[in-house]
């Protein structure tokens, strides 16, 4: 199966969300249907390079895949065939939550895009309701009080269970992430949400391919 990738496949540690700390193989697809102002992977918006995924994965023993982007569900039909063919993989999709999911037996890490980070509101409530029917977790990147209010509005409108909600403070430096985390930690505890830090920033900063 061939898909265009934004960078070479690599093995690292999942740095965010439910499976933080787990070793995984990362596949970053090219192309995105939303262009957030503060996107940390703008290099993935381009055409990328066509890669034979199955051939490349022979280099890795790890059967835990994190498929990210860009927006990996732009390639959803091909990934659906891959999942059917390779049931031995545990697969996470990192998605912006704007494309309806069609793939079963995977985990979706849904990060709705809105606020200062996105530059505009890309949230699609109907699609988020579809994701709720699947094995999905919802990660909200928060910088300020306005972001928090919009997050709470989305949670209410979609009726998301608190057990599936992760709040991730925005930032590219440890001190900034820590600053934003401290602003919201009390509310996170009160609401029963989960805090997700960014382990990859703590370890490597903005370095790519790690």
Main sheet?
8 strands, mixed
Oligomeric grouping of the chains: single chain
Secondary-structure-derived class: alpha/beta
Number of separate domains:
1
The level of helicity is 25-40%
Strand order of the largest sheet: 2-3-5-6-7-8-9-10
Structural write-up:
Its EC number is 4.3.99.3. S-adenosyl-L-methionine binds at residues 70, 111-113. The chain has 210 residues and is an alpha/beta fold. It has a single domain (2-204), classed as Aldolase class I (TIM Barrel, Alpha-Beta Barrel), CATH 3.20.20. The chain has 7 helices and 10 strands. The protein is globular, with a radius of gyration of 16 Å. The mean pLDDT is 92.
Q: Which key phrases capture this entry?
A:
two-stranded antiparallel sheet, alpha/beta, globular, TIM Barrel, 22% strand, 8-stranded mixed sheet, 210 residues
């Amino acid at each position: 199966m061939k898909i265009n990738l934004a960078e070479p496949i690599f093995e690292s540690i999942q740095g965010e969300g439910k499976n933080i700390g787990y070793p995984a193989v990362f596949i970053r697809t090219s192309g995105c249907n939303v262009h957030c102002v503060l996107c940390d992977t703008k290099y993935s918006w381009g055409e990328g390079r066509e890669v034979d995924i199955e051939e490349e994965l022979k280099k890795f023993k790890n059967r835990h895949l994190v498929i990210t982007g860009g927006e990996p569900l732009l390639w959803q039909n091909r990934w659906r065939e891959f999942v059917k063919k390779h049931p031995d993989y545990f697969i996470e999709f990192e998605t912006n939550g704007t494309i309806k999911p069609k793939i079963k037996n995977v985990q979706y890490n849904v990060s709705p895009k809105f606020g200062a980070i996105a530059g505009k509101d890309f949230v699609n409530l109907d699609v988020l309701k579809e994701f709720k029917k699947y094995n999905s977790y919802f990660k909200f990147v928060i910088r300020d009080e306005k972001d928090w209010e919009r997050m709470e509005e989305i949670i209410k409108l979609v009726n998301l269970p608190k057990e599936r909600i992760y709040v991730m403070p925005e930032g590219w430096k440890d001190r900034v992430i820590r600053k934003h985390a401290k602003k919201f930690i009390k509310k996170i505890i009160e609401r029963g949400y989960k805090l997700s830090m960014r382990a990859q920033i703590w370890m490597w900063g903005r370095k790519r391919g790690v």
